[in-house]
Design a protein that fits this description.
Residues 1-238 form the EAL domain. The protein is 40% helix and 22% strand. By secondary structure, it is α/β, with parallel strands linked by helices. The strands form five sheets. It has an eight-stranded mixed barrel. Strands 17-18-16-21-22-23 form a six-stranded mixed β-sheet, with helices on both faces.
Amino acid sequence: MPALLDDVRFAFQPLFNLRTGGVVAVEALARPHDGTVHDLLQMAFRAGYLANTDVALACRAVRHAAEHDFRLPLHVNLLAMTLVDDSALLAPLHGALREVGREPAQLVVEVGVPYSRVPRPLLVRALHGLRREGFRIALDGIGEGDAPLALLADARPDAVKLDRQVVAALPDDPARLALVRALQQLCEQTGAQLVAEGVETGPQLAALRGLGVRLAQGNLLAAAQRRPKVNATITAVLGEVGDPEAVSTTLPIPRPTGPRVTDFLHPATTLPDTAIAEDVREVLVDQPSVTGVVLVDAAGRPTWAVDRNRFLLAVTGPFGHALHAKREASRLADRPRVVGAEASALELLDVVARADRERTNDDLVVVDADERCLGVVRVADVVRGIAELKVEQAAALNPLTRLPGSDAIAREVDRRVLGGEVFAVGWLDVDAFKRVNDTAGFAAGDELIRAIGRALTEAASTWPGTQVGHVGGDDFLVVTGVDELAPLATRLLDTPFDAEGMPVTLSLATLVCAAGSVASYREVSRLLAPLKERAKALEGASWVQGRPGSAGVEVLRGAPRLAVG
């Protein structure tokens, strides 16, 4: 087998952050002279050298990457079968890292299929062992491979790589959209990053961004090449794709409630905290795009942060090089500003606001639960991201009531459906609203709508977990728990409303949804339509209620209209 490995070369494909447009890591892809890497591993399996060959390929990937002298995290591939074979087999990988001067924390081990051929407890134990040694973990082939979902919960990987076959079906396949949405929510809950592989088209990229996926790779962004494109940017591609909210799908695309700091993560340029100033100067001169260097201890924990501008001013001034070059770089550094990986972008800005004025624009260091450096966040990226989020939120609000529209309600309903919750959805509107406008005028009609919006907002603040929305005209939607439904409905229907002294009444149709009784917001809206029609047929303030799968309708308030004639 060693002779066959001599003909293996490597191509490098960057992974991009879909918020910042920059490269955050590079994957090494084996390219045998003849056939594919799968063919090579099959030959090794038949010869009884699968694990040795697999590890040897990872070692060669590390050495080939070192020839290009980049400091971004490197992704290498290892089979799940290899990891549970014998921990001693990974010794050559540690040796390769020492040889090229890399730390385990700078390596992401992508664990590949098949998973079903190895006992899951042994695989989880092996993955936890790798993490204790400092490696970062990614699970590959998720969505089309044989990975049990429980493995994602047990292994707690740093990254989950979405299989290219799933990405290829976007955005036209509702089931695949639901799959990506579910995986994204799982990753958000466990602290992992979802990475989309094989992005080939603009609609695929737009759908992924709309679903909240923040890392991706594929030929649309950058093809695998012999020389890694570590300074590439996809800002132009993101601009051409446009607004992810504009993607037409048959399934509502959820939007995250707010960005986390990891959405803006850049790889950190690190050096040991024993480095001298000349070591830092060489890094900054060789890499003009680097804004600072993080000095870390032996465990990868940040101890000092070197800002590019302040450091270069010190060492390039009169006698600066002579004074500082051979002395500890920490003399020209500051204590790092640190945020946890679970922090929100708003929490990060709170850290910035408390900083000294001269450090306002310094990078912030993101750390994991063990306080090891995961990367850095640039303040400008976060400010821009939050500004974009606020613009999106403002655009989604109804200009009259400042309540969110149907998209927000759709996301809330789908979240509760996915979570298996029991909940209720209500559709509220004004009886004979056209007569209000025709009699009291449009201004009075607008003020009436504002008054109802204020009442709904107050109700939502009284019962946490209740979300209200204004979907247009005199139509409002409410999503709430079953226990809160009756007091909320009573409060709304008992509140007197008028337009220029003209009394008005409200009609309410509610649908109580048990776990598994509905599949989506679209189905809920369809089932509510006949209930609303039934409520409008009643006299005065009215309330009717139904349940999915039942033809029965409860009339909880209102009386039949009297026949005329």
